[in-house]
Structures are given as C-alpha cells and as structure tokens.
From TrEMBL:
<feature type="disulfide bond">
    <location>
        <begin position="741"/>
        <end position="751"/>
    </location>
</feature>
<dbReference type="InterPro" id="IPR011041">
    <property type="entry name" value="Quinoprot_gluc/sorb_DH_b-prop"/>
</dbReference>
<dbReference type="Pfam" id="PF00530">
    <property type="entry name" value="SRCR"/>
</dbReference>
<feature type="signal peptide">
    <location>
        <begin position="1"/>
        <end position="26"/>
    </location>
</feature>
<dbReference type="InterPro" id="IPR036772">
    <property type="entry name" value="SRCR-like_dom_sf"/>
</dbReference>
<dbReference type="InterPro" id="IPR011042">
    <property type="entry name" value="6-blade_b-propeller_TolB-like"/>
</dbReference>
<dbReference type="GO" id="GO:0005576">
    <property type="term" value="C:extracellular region"/>
</dbReference>
<dbReference type="Pfam" id="PF07995">
    <property type="entry name" value="GSDH"/>
</dbReference>
<dbReference type="Pfam" id="PF03024">
    <property type="entry name" value="Folate_rec"/>
</dbReference>
<keyword id="KW-0325">Glycoprotein</keyword>
<protein>
    <recommendedName>
        <fullName>SRCR domain-containing protein</fullName>
    </recommendedName>
</protein>
<dbReference type="GO" id="GO:0016020">
    <property type="term" value="C:membrane"/>
</dbReference>
<dbReference type="InterPro" id="IPR018143">
    <property type="entry name" value="Folate_rcpt-like"/>
</dbReference>
<feature type="domain" description="SRCR">
    <location>
        <begin position="669"/>
        <end position="772"/>
    </location>
</feature>
<keyword id="KW-0964">Secreted</keyword>
<keyword id="KW-1015">Disulfide bond</keyword>
<feature type="compositionally biased region" description="Basic residues">
    <location>
        <begin position="653"/>
        <end position="663"/>
    </location>
</feature>
Length: 773
C-alpha cells in the first residue's frame, strides 16, 4: 500500500493512500494462466461452476474422487461438520477466479495449496473443521499452525480482499457480465493481442496453405512473400521474390506495389498461386494478375520461371489500384480493382466504376481451373453481364471505388449460417468509408454515392441507378481509409463468433459489426484491454497504428497486420493475433496436429518485440505525482499521524488552480480541435516567443509526433496527423514549419525547424497527433 509514496520519495499517512484505492478489477483467470470457459459436459461435483469456470468434466471427477478420499477419514459427526467446507475449498479450483484465489496470476508465482479465504469464513472453518486443513494441503507450515486460529487465518488471507472466498461470490463488480466480452464505460470492447511476426515491410496479405501444415505466407508490399511455420518460425529463404518487377517506392502512402495473394483451392495438389501487383510497361503503369507454381523440388519456394500473366489492366493514375484476390466458395477467382485513381473517378461520362465496359472499379470473376492448356482463364457462364452488349463478361459487380481487403465468411461452425458471404471495405472520397457485402450483378453506387450520401448529385438522382447501400458507413472524423476484415469463425474464442472485425488505416481504429436478429448491423468499437484485462502470459495490449490488412489462419483464428511507418521499405510491420481474454473454448476442443513440413531453408525463430503496457504501474506513477501535488498544497504530512478519512486526490479545479501559479514555459504544447472530446488527439499548438500558435505539416512525421505525445505525458505516438485533420487553427499564427525531430527531444523547439514564425504554408496544413498508452 505504500508503493506510490515510495515512488515519490514521500511518507504519507495510510489513510491518504487508502482513500485513493482503486476498486477490484475483473480479471478471470484459471490455474493454467488462461481465461475460463463453458464446460462441454455437465459437472456433477462442482456444480456452482457448471456453466462457466475453469474445470471440465474430467477435472470435476478428479476433485470428487479427492473429496471422497478426504471424507473417508471422518466419522459421521466429522462428515456432517466438514463436508461442505471440504467441497467448497476443493471446488475453488473451478472458480473463474482460480488464479487469484490460489495466488497464481503468473507462472512465476508459488501456488497456494488452499484458496485465499476471507477472515470470517476462515474463523468458522477453524472452529468447526480445522482438521481438514492438513488433509487438503501438504504444506507443513499450515499443519504446524493449524491449531492457532490467528496465525492460520493470516496465512490463508489474500493481499487483495476483494478476491477472497466466499466474498468474491457476491462481488457485483467481479461477477457482472462474467464470461462476456468486456466493455469499458463507453461501450468499447476490450480485446488483447498476440504478436505473431515482426520486422516486415508493409505486410499487406497473409494466406494459409490449407493443407494441414498450418503454414502461412505473409506478403510485403515490395514484392517478397515469406513462409511461416505453425510455431511462428520463418524460413530464411523467401517463398516468392518478384521485388525487381514490382512497381512501388519508399514514399509513405504509395498505393502501388505487390497488393494481393491467393492460393488455389487445390493448392495442396496443384501448387498454384495468384498474385496482384503493379508494374511499369514502357511509359504506362499497369496492374498485373499472374499465376505461379510452387517449385517441384521445394514446397516452400515458388518456381519464378512459372509465371503466366492472367490479366493486365492499364492504370491511369498511381492511386486506387485495388489489390484483393480471393477464391470464393464456388471455386472462382475474384479480382477487386480500383476506379483508376485521381479523385472523383473523372474518367468518361460517368466514371470507370459505372462503366461496365471498363475493368476498373469492379469486382471481376473468372475461372482458372483446368487452364494448363488453352486460355489462361475462362469466363463463368453464369456471370451476370455475359450477354449484355458492350459489357465486359468478367464483371461480377460494379460501382466500387477502391475496395481494400475483402474476405469470404466461413459460416457458423455448427449451423453454417452466413457461409459464402463476401465482405469488403470500400475506401471513400471526402466524407465516408463503407463496408459492403458483395453480390452478383449489384451496383455499389460509386461515383453517384459515397457511403449513404450522394457524391455526384446528378448521377445519384438517376432512378435507374439501382445501387446497393452499404451495411455500414462511418464519417471521416473516425477514419479516412477503411481496411476490410473478416467475420470471426475460429474455435478458440466463442464470444467473437459472427463478429465482423475490421479497421481503419489512417486512424488506427479497430471496429466490429454484428448482425442482429432483425438483420441490422450493430457497431462496437474495439479497444485494447486496460488494467488487468490482458494480464495473461504472451498477451499484449498495444499495436502499431497503420492497419493494413486482416487475415485468418487455417483454423479460422483472426489476425491483422499493421506498421509504424506506412512505407513499402520500412521494416516496422507486425502481424498480430486477436484474442478475447474474457472466455476461451473448452480445453481440447480446438486442438490440431500440424502435418510436418519438409524444410530446405534455415529457420529463423520468432522473437517478439512488443510487451504488455503495464497501465497499473503507470497509474501508480501518476498517483505518486498527484500525491506530491497534495503535499505541495497542504504541506508536509507526519508519518505517525492517524488515518485521515477525508483525504482525497486533487480535483480538476485544484489542478487548474495550481497550473495558473506557473507561467507557461517556452515549448509547451497542447491539443485542440478534437470534436470527440478525447484528450489523446488533436491539432498541435505550441507556445513560443510568448504566444500560442500552430505547426505546419511539412516534413511532419512520427518522430515529431513522439516528441509531442511524450511531452503531454503519453507513452506513444500512434499517428502523425496532417492536412488539418483536426481543424484549422485560423485564430492563431503559424509558429513552426519544416519540423524534423529524432524523437528523443524534450520539445519541438529542440528539433530542427525554420525560425519561429517563419513559414511557407497555410492553416490547411496544420499538423496534429494521435497519442496513446
């Protein structure tokens, strides 16, 4: 209880610290350091935990057998006095909070032999059945002190009284929504992550072999694809390397490059794969879809000489290149192209997307089966525009702007409900991002419509448009570049079943949709777990902000890829696995044995780089600083004073009053212009030469954002915002321009920059940040 005071170098009365104590944080955890689960079969002994806890029926039978061995040593009178106590104590191993009861929150903690008991219960146990202690425990210390009630109950007491038995059974905070996905008071779902891979250059596709090996392949934007085995080790030799042919650049945000990868449904036998990438042919830029085969001598390497070009399409601009390839349940190859780039689809009378004679702005569907002889692809006879004059027969759906990341729903594991649906995120223009379900022959509205809103009002008012509205759209204040995701259909986290999880490349938001019984789609934002939520071995609660893509492995578990620097050549990309810490599947229900893989390349073992952000430690530091403020304001506190029940931390008013005492320092920063009211993001304003002003976004990057966020007390800069994303600070002068930081400076004024007040920009280029812990 004295840690905060010790951290600040102060001696404070215990009452002041107790008055500031935090309520118990819900963190269900079993003795194997994993979340609880719903048993597949009924429990016959520990029935209190039959619906949710840490025991399956096999462990329940073992505990019952132990119970009868112990109770067999009692006469009738002893049986009557002790039976309920012995059953209670044995069954706490099945409690959703077993790890807390037995002091086993991590593998390095010694395991108690008897769960932590509340003092009043311990006293009753001692009075009526103290002999059971030695029978339940092999601990010689407990046997030695079991005749001394005071010593025994002190030994069996927990440091955290909220978790002691049986008090935790009636603790509303601990038992509210137990077994459901945790949400904060804003409704944001609290999930966690496992780091799976790192050091990647804009990883934008991850596919599995679907051959029982549980291998997966991760593609980088530069044109290199890596093989990862089921233990997350990586082969030193790339699976595919066409980086010399791929057109891209180190520019942040360059949309050209290696953009898509799909393995043939019969990859296990025919070794075929398909790639989508940007190329330069003479003066022209094109997108190319090619077929490759795996090497006959190495199943983890592509035969680079086997390339056959399936399709090439001229790109009139360097953006909106599409890039998704996938095989749907019908075995056909689906190709998702962008509208050709620039802004507003300015090509032709109605744009490429509405022109069915153009392949841009479309979902294409072709048949690449049995293509070893004859044409490289055929057009399926049931494609919707096969017989329409002037239309390209490959067109499956149209009116799309730039669908970035699409997926096929595997369907519910039991009922197969939802199976075969194709979900896509379609990147918007000026106002909205959208999520669509792609169906044959449908028009998805661009450029007439952006999200639910009209973009081209004349085209939008055309009664023959017949466009399909998205299932969900969100405004640009929440994000400016949707990254489509997957409907979770894995085994390990039952609470996530049916949840469509997606993200935004620019804002770094993770989001989810779930279809209700009425057919509507309900939205929930996803946040990283706070407090103890992610305090499980191997889990983390942070990620790099530029969310590039999503994926699922052979077992259906969900992943996403993001990077710290959105450049095709920056090795700051990661792959993360999504984890629900509130509930797992029953033990044994998701096990699989990967088939062995013949490896001809050196293996590089996975070494994680990220770690759990210990928010509790950070909060303790913050409390220590606030306690220092208390002492500054009320004077020294003697260590032998009695507890002060009325002591409290300083209020916001107190802090504002204290802040007014101090003159604003040169180089101070603040965040403004965030309409959501979140204190971790906004337009950067700096105090220099006696006045507040804005910062121009010329050369503004993540290193400069780090300086601002750290100055404001945040641990991380999640994103450097540009182009007045948080509004224009027209009421202020522009004080800094051409800011270049290393990321370690104390203030922006310590970075390289033009002279204060000198600039060649306008407020439409005001810089901002998104910070986080």
């Amino acid at each position: 209880m004295t840690a905060p005071a010790a951290a600040s170098g102060l001696a404070l009365p215990l009452g002041l610290l107790l008055a500031w104590g935090a309520p118990a944080l819900s963190h269900p955890q079993c003795l194997d350091f994993k979340p609880p689960f719903r048993p597949r079969a009924e429990l016959g002994f520990c029935t209190a935990y039959a619906h949710f806890g840490c025991c399956d029926s096999a462990r329940d039978r073992e505990l019952m057998a132990k119970y009868y061995r112990i109770m067999g040593q009692y006469d009738d009178d002893g049986f009557a006095r002790c039976a309920s106590y012995v059953q209670d104590l044995l069954c706490q191993e099945c409690s959703p909070y077993a790890a807390h009861l037995f002091d086993a929150e991590d593998p390095g903690t010694p395991l108690r032999s008897i769960p932590g008991l509340c003092p009043e219960y311990c006293s009753d146990l001692w009075s009526k059945c103290r002999s059971s202690v030695a029978l339940l425990s092999g601990d010689p210390l407990l046997a030695e002190i079991q005749q001394d009630r005071s010593r025994l109950c002190r030994q069996l007491e927990l440091d955290d009284p909220d978790y002691c038995f049986p008090r935790l059974l009636s603790n509303e905070r601990l038992n509210r929504n137990l077994g459901r996905v945790t949400a904060d008071n804003q409704g944001c779902l609290q999930l966690c992550l496992e780091e799976v891979a790192n050091g990647l250059r804009n990883p934008l596709a991850m596919v599995h072999a679907n051959d029982g090996t549980h291998r997966f392949f991760v593609a980088e934007q530069v044109g290199v694809v890596w093989t990862y085995l089921s233990d997350r080790s990586r082969l030193e030799k790339p699976f595919l390397n066409i980086s010399e042919a791929v057109l891209t650049s180190p520019w942040e945000g360059d949309e050209r490059g290696f953009l898509g990868l799909a393995l043939h449904p019969d990859f296990k036998h025919n070794g075929k794969l398909y790639v989508y990438y940007s190329v330069e042919v003479g003066p022209d830029e094109r997108i190319r879809i090619s077929e490759f085969r795996v090497s006959a001598s190495d199943g983890n390497a592509v035969d680079h000489g086997s390339e056959r070009v399936i399709l090439e399409i001229d790109e009139p601009a360097s953006n909106h290149n599409g890039g998704q390839l996938l095989f749907a349940d019908d075995g056909r190859l689906y190709i998702f192209t962008g509208d050709g780039g620039m802004a507003g689809d300015p090509f032709g009378r109605f744009g490429n997307a509405q022109n069915k004679s153009a392949l841009l702005g479309k979902v294409l569907r072709i048949d690449v089966s049995d293509n070893d002889k004859g044409p490289v692809y055929k057009v399926p006879l049931d494609n919707p525009f096969w017989h329409e004059p002037g239309a390209r027969p490959e067109v499956y759906a149209y009116g799309v702007r730039n669908m970035w990341r699409c997926s096929v729903d595997r369907g519910d594991r039991l009922t197969k409900e939802g199976k075969g649906r194709i979900f896509c995120g379609d990147v918007g223009q000026n106002k909205y991002e959208e999520v669509d379900i792609v169906e044959m022959g449908k028009n998805y509205g661009w450029r007439a419509r952006e999200g639910f809103s009209c973009y081209d009002k004349k085209l939008c008012s055309n009664s023959s448009l017949g466009d399909v509205l998205p299932i969900y759209a969100y405004p640009h204040k929440h994000g400016k570049s949707v990254t489509g995701g997957y409907v979770y259909r894995g085994c390990e986290y039952p609470n996530l079943n049916g949840m469509y999880i997606f993200g935004d490349f620019m804002s770094g938001r993770l989001m989810s949709l779930r279809q209700s019984y009425t057919g509507d789609w309900d939205y929930s934002e996803i946040c990283m777990g706070t407090g103890l939520t992610c305090a499980f071995p191997g889990l983390i609660n942070n990620y790099h902000p530029y969310i590039i893509s999503f994926a699922e492995d052979e077992a259906g578990e969900l992943y996403f890829m993001s990077t710290e620097v959105p450049s095709a050549t920056s090795p700051t990309g990661f792959v993360y696995k999504v984890v629900d810490p509130s509930r797992r599947a029953p033990p044994g229900s998701c096990q699989y044995d990967p088939l062995p893989v013949k490896v001809r390349s050196k293996l590089i073992q996975f070494k994680p780089k990220e770690s759990l952000i210990d928010e509790l430690a950070a909060q303790s530091r913050d409390r220590a600083e606030d306690l220092t403020d208390v002492v500054d304001e009320v004077g020294p506190v003697a260590t032998d004073d009695p507890p002060v029940a009325t002591a409290r931390p300083p209020s916001r008013k107190d802090r504002r009053r204290k802040q007014k005492k101090h003159k604003t320092e040169n180089g101070a920063v603040r965040l403004s212009g965030n309409n959501d009211g979140k204190p971790d993001r906004g337009r950067v304003e700096i105090f220099a030469s006696g006045e507040w002003g804005t910062v121009c976004d010329d050369l503004w990057d993540g290193k400069s954002a780090e300086v601002v966020c750290r100055h404001l007390g945040f641990q991380y800069a999640l994103r450097a915002a540009k182009a007045a994303e948080f509004g224009e600070g027209k009421h202020l002068k522009i004080l800094l321009d051409d800011v270049q930081c290393q990321g370690t400076e104390q203030s922006l004024l310590d970075c390289q920059h033009r002279d204060v007040g000198s600039h060649n920009c306008g407020h439409h280029e005001d810089a901002g940040v998104v910070c986080g812990n």
